[in-house]
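Q: Give me the 3D complex with NAP.
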Amino acid sequence: MERRIEVGILGATGMVGQHFVRFLQGHPWFELTWLGASDRSAGKKYKEACQWHLGGVTPEAVADIVVEDCRPGNAPKILFSATDASVATEIERAFAQAGHIVVSNSRNHRMEPDVPLLVPEINPDHLKLIPVQQKNRGWSGQIVTNPNCSTVVLTMGLAALKPYGITRVIATTLQAISGAGYPGVPSMDINANVIPFIGGEEEKMQQETQKILGSMNGQKIVPLAAKVSAHCNRVPVVDGHTVTISVELSAKPSEAELLAAFDAYTSVPQQRKLPSAPPRPVIYMPEQNRPQPRKDVERERGMAVFIGRLRACPALDYKFIALGHNTVRGAAGAAVLNAELMVSEGLLDG
Ligand SMILES: NC(=O)c1ccc[n+]([C@@H]2O[C@H](COP(=O)([O-])OP(=O)(O)OC[C@H]3O[C@@H](n4cnc5c(N)ncnc54)[C@H](OP(=O)(O)O)[C@@H]3O)[C@@H](O)[C@H]2O)c1
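A: Here is the predicted complex, encoded as C-alpha coordinates.
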Protein backbone atom coordinates (compact mmCIF):
# COMPACT_ATOMS: atom_id res chain seq x y z
CA MET A 1 0.00 0.00 0.00
CA GLU A 2 1.55 3.34 -1.12
CA ARG A 3 -0.10 5.50 1.52
CA ARG A 4 -1.67 4.31 4.74
CA ILE A 5 -5.42 4.83 5.16
CA GLU A 6 -6.39 7.24 7.93
CA VAL A 7 -8.62 5.70 10.58
CA GLY A 8 -10.21 6.81 13.84
CA ILE A 9 -11.71 5.27 16.98
CA LEU A 10 -15.09 6.06 18.52
CA GLY A 11 -14.83 5.42 22.27
CA ALA A 12 -11.03 5.61 22.14
CA THR A 13 -10.58 6.29 25.88
CA GLY A 14 -12.34 3.11 27.10
CA MET A 15 -10.90 -0.34 27.67
CA VAL A 16 -11.64 -1.66 24.17
CA GLY A 17 -10.64 1.72 22.68
CA GLN A 18 -7.22 1.29 24.27
CA HIS A 19 -6.91 -2.19 22.78
CA PHE A 20 -7.66 -0.63 19.36
CA VAL A 21 -4.99 2.03 19.95
CA ARG A 22 -2.44 -0.62 20.87
CA PHE A 23 -3.37 -3.04 18.07
CA LEU A 24 -3.17 -0.30 15.43
CA GLN A 25 0.36 0.84 16.39
CA GLY A 26 2.63 0.21 13.39
CA HIS A 27 -0.21 -1.18 11.26
CA PRO A 28 1.01 -1.42 7.63
CA TRP A 29 -2.29 -0.25 6.05
CA PHE A 30 -3.97 1.94 8.69
CA GLU A 31 -2.77 5.15 10.33
CA LEU A 32 -4.60 6.18 13.49
CA THR A 33 -5.19 9.93 13.26
CA TRP A 34 -8.49 10.63 15.05
CA LEU A 35 -9.83 9.76 18.50
CA GLY A 36 -13.40 10.29 19.72
CA ALA A 37 -15.04 9.90 23.13
CA SER A 38 -17.66 11.57 25.34
CA ASP A 39 -17.97 15.25 26.28
CA ARG A 40 -16.00 14.38 29.41
CA SER A 41 -12.92 13.71 27.29
CA ALA A 42 -13.43 15.97 24.24
CA GLY A 43 -10.94 18.85 24.03
CA LYS A 44 -8.29 17.08 26.13
CA LYS A 45 -5.11 15.43 24.87
CA TYR A 46 -5.52 11.63 24.75
CA LYS A 47 -2.87 11.11 27.46
CA GLU A 48 -4.88 13.39 29.77
CA ALA A 49 -8.37 12.13 28.87
CA CYS A 50 -7.51 8.45 29.11
CA GLN A 51 -6.35 6.46 32.10
CA TRP A 52 -4.13 3.89 30.32
CA HIS A 53 -4.90 0.41 31.70
CA LEU A 54 -2.81 -1.76 29.37
CA GLY A 55 0.88 -2.62 29.77
CA GLY A 56 3.37 0.25 29.50
CA VAL A 57 2.35 3.85 28.92
CA THR A 58 0.08 5.61 26.40
CA PRO A 59 1.68 5.13 22.96
CA GLU A 60 3.62 8.24 21.96
CA ALA A 61 2.04 8.40 18.50
CA VAL A 62 -1.40 9.17 19.97
CA ALA A 63 -0.57 10.74 23.37
CA ASP A 64 -0.96 14.34 22.14
CA ILE A 65 -3.92 13.86 19.79
CA VAL A 66 -6.82 16.01 21.02
CA VAL A 67 -9.90 13.86 21.65
CA GLU A 68 -13.05 14.94 19.81
CA ASP A 69 -16.78 14.50 20.36
CA CYS A 70 -18.36 11.44 18.71
CA ARG A 71 -20.19 13.60 16.16
CA PRO A 72 -19.69 13.44 12.40
CA GLY A 73 -17.50 16.31 11.18
CA ASN A 74 -13.83 15.93 10.47
CA ALA A 75 -13.33 12.25 11.35
CA PRO A 76 -11.71 9.96 8.74
CA LYS A 77 -13.89 7.73 6.61
CA ILE A 78 -13.07 4.50 8.49
CA LEU A 79 -13.92 4.40 12.17
CA PHE A 80 -13.52 1.56 14.64
CA SER A 81 -16.22 1.75 17.27
CA ALA A 82 -15.77 0.87 20.95
CA THR A 83 -18.37 3.21 22.39
CA ASP A 84 -20.40 2.37 25.44
CA ALA A 85 -23.38 0.17 24.49
CA SER A 86 -25.80 2.73 25.97
CA VAL A 87 -24.86 5.25 23.25
CA ALA A 88 -23.46 3.09 20.42
CA THR A 89 -26.74 2.74 18.50
CA GLU A 90 -27.22 6.48 17.87
CA ILE A 91 -23.52 7.30 17.44
CA GLU A 92 -22.80 4.50 14.95
CA ARG A 93 -25.93 5.24 12.92
CA ALA A 94 -25.14 8.96 12.75
CA PHE A 95 -21.66 8.22 11.36
CA ALA A 96 -22.94 5.63 8.86
CA GLN A 97 -25.58 8.09 7.67
CA ALA A 98 -22.86 10.73 7.24
CA GLY A 99 -20.95 8.36 4.91
CA HIS A 100 -18.51 6.72 7.33
CA ILE A 101 -17.60 3.05 7.41
CA VAL A 102 -18.19 2.00 11.01
CA VAL A 103 -16.40 -1.20 11.97
CA SER A 104 -18.00 -1.86 15.31
CA ASN A 105 -17.20 -3.94 18.30
CA SER A 106 -20.40 -3.07 20.17
CA ARG A 107 -23.29 -5.49 20.46
CA ASN A 108 -25.94 -2.97 19.40
CA HIS A 109 -26.23 -3.70 15.67
CA ARG A 110 -24.94 -7.28 15.50
CA MET A 111 -28.26 -9.06 15.15
CA GLU A 112 -29.93 -6.60 12.74
CA PRO A 113 -30.74 -8.58 9.57
CA ASP A 114 -28.97 -6.17 7.20
CA VAL A 115 -25.77 -5.81 9.27
CA PRO A 116 -22.89 -8.24 8.63
CA LEU A 117 -21.70 -10.04 11.77
CA LEU A 118 -18.35 -10.85 10.33
CA VAL A 119 -15.62 -13.38 11.06
CA PRO A 120 -13.39 -13.03 7.97
CA GLU A 121 -12.36 -16.69 7.95
CA ILE A 122 -15.95 -17.96 8.24
CA ASN A 123 -18.37 -15.69 6.44
CA PRO A 124 -16.62 -13.14 4.20
CA ASP A 125 -19.58 -13.44 1.79
CA HIS A 126 -21.86 -11.83 4.43
CA LEU A 127 -20.36 -8.51 3.27
CA LYS A 128 -22.88 -8.80 0.42
CA LEU A 129 -25.38 -7.41 2.97
CA ILE A 130 -23.80 -3.97 2.70
CA PRO A 131 -25.63 -2.79 -0.43
CA VAL A 132 -28.86 -4.14 1.12
CA GLN A 133 -28.16 -2.17 4.31
CA GLN A 134 -27.35 1.01 2.40
CA LYS A 135 -30.54 0.68 0.33
CA ASN A 136 -32.74 -0.12 3.34
CA ARG A 137 -31.45 2.78 5.38
CA GLY A 138 -30.57 5.34 2.73
CA TRP A 139 -26.97 5.51 4.01
CA SER A 140 -23.89 6.24 1.96
CA GLY A 141 -21.85 4.77 4.84
CA GLN A 142 -22.24 1.40 6.53
CA ILE A 143 -21.96 -0.58 9.76
CA VAL A 144 -20.13 -3.90 10.00
CA THR A 145 -19.79 -5.73 13.34
CA ASN A 146 -17.67 -8.41 14.98
CA PRO A 147 -19.02 -11.02 17.40
CA ASN A 148 -19.07 -11.20 21.14
CA CYS A 149 -15.73 -12.34 22.59
CA SER A 150 -16.88 -15.87 23.49
CA THR A 151 -18.91 -16.36 20.30
CA VAL A 152 -15.80 -15.85 18.16
CA VAL A 153 -13.97 -18.65 20.00
CA LEU A 154 -16.94 -21.01 19.59
CA THR A 155 -17.50 -20.23 15.90
CA MET A 156 -13.80 -20.52 15.00
CA GLY A 157 -13.81 -23.87 16.81
CA LEU A 158 -16.84 -25.03 14.80
CA ALA A 159 -15.89 -23.54 11.43
CA ALA A 160 -13.78 -26.47 10.24
CA LEU A 161 -16.60 -28.89 11.18
CA LYS A 162 -19.35 -27.08 9.25
CA PRO A 163 -19.00 -29.27 6.12
CA TYR A 164 -19.98 -32.28 8.29
CA GLY A 165 -23.40 -30.79 9.08
CA ILE A 166 -23.58 -29.25 12.56
CA THR A 167 -26.96 -30.08 14.12
CA ARG A 168 -26.50 -29.60 17.89
CA VAL A 169 -23.94 -27.77 20.04
CA ILE A 170 -23.45 -27.49 23.79
CA ALA A 171 -20.82 -24.89 24.75
CA THR A 172 -19.62 -24.06 28.26
CA THR A 173 -17.38 -21.04 28.78
CA LEU A 174 -14.66 -20.17 31.28
CA GLN A 175 -14.37 -16.45 30.60
CA ALA A 176 -11.56 -14.12 31.61
CA ILE A 177 -12.11 -11.08 33.81
CA SER A 178 -10.73 -8.71 31.13
CA GLY A 179 -13.94 -9.44 29.18
CA ALA A 180 -15.86 -7.40 31.73
CA GLY A 181 -13.95 -4.19 30.91
CA TYR A 182 -12.44 -1.91 33.59
CA PRO A 183 -12.74 -2.06 36.60
CA GLY A 184 -14.83 -5.13 35.79
CA VAL A 185 -15.77 -7.78 38.35
CA PRO A 186 -14.90 -6.83 41.98
CA SER A 187 -11.80 -8.72 43.17
CA MET A 188 -13.71 -9.92 46.27
CA ASP A 189 -16.17 -11.68 43.96
CA ILE A 190 -13.78 -13.30 41.49
CA ASN A 191 -10.68 -14.26 43.51
CA ALA A 192 -10.60 -18.06 44.01
CA ASN A 193 -14.14 -18.26 42.71
CA VAL A 194 -16.39 -18.97 39.70
CA ILE A 195 -19.38 -16.78 38.84
CA PRO A 196 -21.96 -18.82 36.89
CA PHE A 197 -23.73 -15.87 35.27
CA ILE A 198 -22.80 -13.18 32.73
CA GLY A 199 -25.82 -11.07 31.84
CA GLY A 200 -27.09 -11.58 28.28
CA GLU A 201 -24.02 -13.63 27.28
CA GLU A 202 -25.67 -17.01 26.72
CA GLU A 203 -28.35 -15.56 24.45
CA LYS A 204 -25.69 -13.65 22.46
CA MET A 205 -23.56 -16.78 21.99
CA GLN A 206 -26.53 -18.84 20.82
CA GLN A 207 -27.96 -16.32 18.35
CA GLU A 208 -24.69 -14.91 17.03
CA THR A 209 -23.33 -18.41 16.33
CA GLN A 210 -26.35 -19.26 14.17
CA LYS A 211 -26.02 -15.99 12.24
CA ILE A 212 -22.24 -16.28 11.68
CA LEU A 213 -22.42 -19.90 10.52
CA GLY A 214 -25.55 -19.14 8.47
CA SER A 215 -25.55 -18.84 4.68
CA MET A 216 -26.00 -15.79 2.48
CA ASN A 217 -29.10 -16.41 0.40
CA GLY A 218 -29.81 -13.60 -2.06
CA GLN A 219 -30.39 -10.53 0.09
CA LYS A 220 -30.46 -12.16 3.52
CA ILE A 221 -28.73 -14.56 5.87
CA VAL A 222 -30.38 -17.86 6.65
CA PRO A 223 -29.19 -18.81 10.16
CA LEU A 224 -27.57 -22.20 10.70
CA ALA A 225 -30.39 -24.56 11.64
CA ALA A 226 -28.48 -26.05 14.57
CA LYS A 227 -29.59 -26.01 18.20
CA VAL A 228 -26.94 -24.14 20.20
CA SER A 229 -26.93 -24.18 24.00
CA ALA A 230 -24.43 -21.99 25.91
CA HIS A 231 -23.46 -21.96 29.59
CA CYS A 232 -21.39 -18.89 30.50
CA ASN A 233 -19.12 -18.59 33.53
CA ARG A 234 -16.61 -15.98 34.72
CA VAL A 235 -13.37 -17.44 36.12
CA PRO A 236 -10.24 -15.88 37.67
CA VAL A 237 -8.21 -15.78 34.44
CA VAL A 238 -6.86 -12.43 33.22
CA ASP A 239 -6.96 -12.88 29.42
CA GLY A 240 -8.39 -15.71 27.31
CA HIS A 241 -11.82 -17.26 27.03
CA THR A 242 -11.88 -21.06 27.12
CA VAL A 243 -14.92 -22.88 25.70
CA THR A 244 -15.63 -26.60 26.08
CA ILE A 245 -17.73 -27.76 23.14
CA SER A 246 -19.85 -30.85 22.43
CA VAL A 247 -21.15 -31.16 18.88
CA GLU A 248 -23.48 -33.41 16.88
CA LEU A 249 -22.63 -33.79 13.18
CA SER A 250 -25.06 -35.26 10.66
CA ALA A 251 -22.35 -36.77 8.42
CA LYS A 252 -20.86 -38.79 11.33
CA PRO A 253 -17.20 -38.25 10.38
CA SER A 254 -14.36 -40.18 12.01
CA GLU A 255 -12.10 -38.59 14.61
CA ALA A 256 -9.23 -38.70 12.10
CA GLU A 257 -11.31 -36.76 9.58
CA LEU A 258 -12.04 -34.05 12.13
CA LEU A 259 -8.38 -33.77 13.15
CA ALA A 260 -7.47 -33.41 9.49
CA ALA A 261 -10.20 -30.76 9.07
CA PHE A 262 -8.79 -28.70 11.99
CA ASP A 263 -5.25 -29.01 10.62
CA ALA A 264 -6.21 -28.07 7.06
CA TYR A 265 -8.49 -25.18 8.02
CA THR A 266 -7.57 -21.94 6.26
CA SER A 267 -9.60 -19.27 4.54
CA VAL A 268 -9.76 -15.96 2.67
CA PRO A 269 -7.67 -13.86 5.15
CA GLN A 270 -4.82 -16.37 4.92
CA GLN A 271 -5.04 -16.66 1.12
CA ARG A 272 -4.96 -12.85 0.83
CA LYS A 273 -2.27 -12.56 3.51
CA LEU A 274 -4.19 -9.84 5.37
CA PRO A 275 -1.80 -8.12 7.81
CA SER A 276 -3.58 -9.27 11.00
CA ALA A 277 -4.50 -12.75 9.76
CA PRO A 278 -2.72 -15.54 11.63
CA PRO A 279 -1.04 -17.96 9.18
CA ARG A 280 -3.15 -20.75 10.73
CA PRO A 281 -6.44 -19.47 12.18
CA VAL A 282 -7.13 -22.69 14.09
CA ILE A 283 -4.27 -24.53 15.77
CA TYR A 284 -4.89 -28.05 17.08
CA MET A 285 -2.69 -28.91 20.09
CA PRO A 286 -2.19 -32.68 20.58
CA GLU A 287 -1.02 -32.44 24.24
CA GLN A 288 -3.59 -33.75 26.72
CA ASN A 289 -3.46 -30.64 28.91
CA ARG A 290 -3.53 -27.85 26.31
CA PRO A 291 -4.53 -25.24 25.32
CA GLN A 292 -4.18 -23.18 28.51
CA PRO A 293 -4.82 -19.42 28.75
CA ARG A 294 -1.55 -18.56 30.51
CA LYS A 295 0.60 -20.57 28.11
CA ASP A 296 -1.16 -20.16 24.78
CA VAL A 297 -3.38 -17.11 24.55
CA GLU A 298 -0.70 -14.57 23.55
CA ARG A 299 0.70 -16.77 20.74
CA GLU A 300 0.08 -15.65 17.13
CA ARG A 301 -0.51 -12.06 18.43
CA GLY A 302 -3.73 -13.33 20.04
CA MET A 303 -5.36 -13.84 16.61
CA ALA A 304 -5.49 -17.67 16.38
CA VAL A 305 -7.92 -19.98 18.19
CA PHE A 306 -6.32 -22.98 19.88
CA ILE A 307 -8.14 -26.33 19.92
CA GLY A 308 -7.42 -29.50 21.86
CA ARG A 309 -8.71 -32.72 23.40
CA LEU A 310 -10.89 -33.93 20.52
CA ARG A 311 -12.64 -37.11 21.65
CA ALA A 312 -15.92 -38.98 21.43
CA CYS A 313 -18.86 -37.49 23.34
CA PRO A 314 -21.36 -39.99 24.81
CA ALA A 315 -24.17 -37.40 24.63
CA LEU A 316 -23.53 -35.80 21.19
CA ASP A 317 -20.85 -37.00 18.71
CA TYR A 318 -17.58 -35.29 19.66
CA LYS A 319 -16.25 -32.94 22.32
CA PHE A 320 -13.20 -30.66 22.40
CA ILE A 321 -11.83 -27.46 23.92
CA ALA A 322 -11.17 -24.07 22.29
CA LEU A 323 -9.27 -21.02 23.56
CA GLY A 324 -9.12 -17.50 22.14
CA HIS A 325 -7.92 -14.05 23.20
CA ASN A 326 -11.06 -12.17 24.23
CA THR A 327 -9.74 -8.62 23.88
CA VAL A 328 -7.75 -9.30 20.67
CA ARG A 329 -9.54 -11.95 18.56
CA GLY A 330 -12.72 -11.13 20.51
CA ALA A 331 -12.54 -7.34 20.15
CA ALA A 332 -9.91 -5.00 18.62
CA GLY A 333 -8.04 -7.55 16.47
CA ALA A 334 -11.33 -8.91 15.13
CA ALA A 335 -12.52 -5.48 13.99
CA VAL A 336 -9.16 -4.60 12.42
CA LEU A 337 -9.19 -7.90 10.49
CA ASN A 338 -12.74 -7.07 9.35
CA ALA A 339 -11.51 -3.73 7.99
CA GLU A 340 -8.57 -5.42 6.27
CA LEU A 341 -10.98 -7.83 4.57
CA MET A 342 -13.08 -4.87 3.42
CA VAL A 343 -9.99 -3.13 1.99
CA SER A 344 -9.06 -6.32 0.15
CA GLU A 345 -12.59 -6.47 -1.31
CA GLY A 346 -12.27 -2.88 -2.56
CA LEU A 347 -15.15 -1.86 -0.28
CA LEU A 348 -13.29 1.11 1.18
CA ASP A 349 -12.45 2.69 -2.18
CA GLY A 350 -13.97 5.95 -3.33
N1 LIG B 1 -14.58 -4.96 27.62
C1 LIG B 1 -14.53 -5.93 26.73
O1 LIG B 1 -13.71 -6.86 26.76
C2 LIG B 1 -15.48 -5.92 25.57
C3 LIG B 1 -15.41 -6.97 24.68
C4 LIG B 1 -16.22 -6.94 23.57
C5 LIG B 1 -17.06 -5.88 23.38
N2 LIG B 1 -17.15 -4.85 24.25
C6 LIG B 1 -18.02 -3.73 23.90
O2 LIG B 1 -17.19 -2.61 23.53
C7 LIG B 1 -17.78 -1.39 23.96
C8 LIG B 1 -16.83 -0.66 24.87
O3 LIG B 1 -16.56 -1.43 26.05
P1 LIG B 1 -15.46 -0.94 27.11
O4 LIG B 1 -15.29 -2.04 28.08
O5 LIG B 1 -14.26 -0.40 26.39
O6 LIG B 1 -16.24 0.31 27.81
P2 LIG B 1 -15.63 1.56 28.59
O7 LIG B 1 -14.26 1.27 29.10
O8 LIG B 1 -16.65 1.99 29.57
O9 LIG B 1 -15.47 2.70 27.46
C9 LIG B 1 -16.58 3.29 26.86
C10 LIG B 1 -16.14 4.34 25.85
O10 LIG B 1 -17.33 4.97 25.35
C11 LIG B 1 -17.19 6.38 25.51
N3 LIG B 1 -18.49 6.99 25.77
C12 LIG B 1 -19.28 6.84 26.86
N4 LIG B 1 -20.38 7.63 26.76
C13 LIG B 1 -20.26 8.29 25.58
C14 LIG B 1 -21.05 9.26 24.92
N5 LIG B 1 -22.20 9.71 25.43
N6 LIG B 1 -20.62 9.71 23.72
C15 LIG B 1 -19.46 9.27 23.19
N7 LIG B 1 -18.67 8.35 23.77
C16 LIG B 1 -19.07 7.88 24.96
C17 LIG B 1 -16.26 6.57 26.70
O11 LIG B 1 -15.69 7.86 26.67
P3 LIG B 1 -15.26 8.64 28.04
O12 LIG B 1 -13.97 8.04 28.49
O13 LIG B 1 -15.09 10.04 27.58
O14 LIG B 1 -16.35 8.44 29.02
C18 LIG B 1 -15.25 5.46 26.41
O15 LIG B 1 -14.34 5.88 25.43
C19 LIG B 1 -19.09 -1.77 24.64
O16 LIG B 1 -20.13 -1.63 23.70
C20 LIG B 1 -18.88 -3.22 25.05
O17 LIG B 1 -20.08 -3.92 25.13
C21 LIG B 1 -16.35 -4.84 25.35
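A quick observation: Residues 11-17, 37-38, 40-41, 70, 82-85, 87-88, 91, 105-107, 149, 178-179, 181-182, 326-327, 330-331 surround NAP (CB under 6 Å).
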